[in-house]
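Methods, example record. To illustrate the input and output format used throughout this study, we show the complete record for High affinity nitrate transporter 2.5. The sequence lines were provided to the predictor; the line carrying structure tokens was produced by it.
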Amino acid sequence: MEISQGGDDSYQKKFALPVDSEHKATEFRLFSVAAPHMRAFHLSWISFFACFVSTFAAPPLLPIIRDNLDLTATDIGNAGIAAVSGAVFARIAMGTACDLFGPRLASASLTLLTAPAVYCTSIANSAVSFLLVRFFTGFSLATFVSTQFWMSSMFSARVVGTANGVAGGWGNLGGGATQLIMPLVFDLIHHIGATKFTAWRIAFFIPALFQTLSAYGIFFLGQDLPDGNYSQLHKSGDKHKDNFAQVFHHAVTNYRGWILALTYGYCFGVELTIDNIIAQYFYDRFNVNLHTAGIIAASFGLANLFSRPGGGMLSDLMAKKFGMRGRLWTLWIVQTLGGVFCILLGKVGSLGVSIAVMLIFSVFVQAACGLTFGVVPFVSRRSLGIISGMTGGGGNVGAVLTQVIFFRGSRYSTETGLTLMGVMIICCTLLITLIHFPQWGGMFCGPASKSTTEEDYYMSEWNSAEKEQGFHKASLKFSENSRSERGKRIGSAPTPNNSTPDTYV
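The corresponding predicted structure is encoded as:
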């Protein structure tokens, strides 16, 4: 067991992992299930995985579902849009709930509340009812926000990109896994004796049950923060109940959050779009059977096993040498390359080459998602939940806009839509060049001045009255622990005299 004591703590607390002064883990041990850090990690990605499976359970079975419900191409496009649009505002609301009530309760509640919609997919009997169940099921994707918030609350600056990347990436695996799971479940039920139009309905009970069980796991086994749950910490006085108006204000007035929301719309939003269209694209364009189309489509989502985690790890690696500027440059390069390969995917005409280009494209676009959430935790300490929600919601907005413009109806062929989507990725990614942190700099220029510190940036979110009451102490500790974002500057940058040293054993 490791022991860590924060600079201003009056007690010692034991943890299985080494921690900093906020009791956030400074190491990421993938194969550990130690409470509270690694247990939170495994609970969060499994729950998010379950929600992803539920949300994208329909696309691999669409050739059967469309025949049963007489769906037109427009109906299918509208349902795909509905599945990702439901989470736009849900993600922002989830961020707020995480800031005020904690990620454990917020995640478990939403996961459980949306499970009935998955069950009800089995009784859909029209285009409208099919659209509605996909819309309400899509709300569950907002658990992504609680996943990223939870990881940012449990892991220190030096490994937060890795923790966010692996949790988000393994959760996103559900988008690929469901392309394999649902056709297999459907085939099994069909071979047992059910008709095709009955088998697809019964198949939806599997993701619904999985989602329900994951919600109970989060609620009974999870913990909000290293030191306990929000409710316990509020009662003990160790954590104050923040003012929603102030939390919201500091989130919406921080332009960095808006830029990341837009650019995330063209990495994660693109991933959602591909999850909705790729199986049907290969089925229709290359005349492969349903099972083969599912396997090809699954390979796109399954790349999340290493691509998004790789993006998070790459973000942390670049930050060690180049600081925040390294994170930003790497994000821009990787996401731009994703746009290039998306253009190529729409241009190539052979099955083998299309699969190869799709796989390369998947690696870059998913790595960009991990790189994005290597930056998000540093935009705001006080409004982390809402910033995470804004960014996550931006991913859904990007998916909705992309599907409405390029993949709804017959205005564009799917291959033309893919090419135009790639152009959109490249153009929107340029906005990353505008992000600048006064204490660390941006892509093309350094810090505002050599005297600017992390404390200057994060303490600006608290007024003098709040500081007098000590509400800012958590932000002060975060400022100390985020000095690693200076990169090579870390040895020469100023350190305030009133700060407390980092402590980890």
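Annotations derived from this record:
The longest helix spans residues 160-192.
The mean pLDDT is 90.
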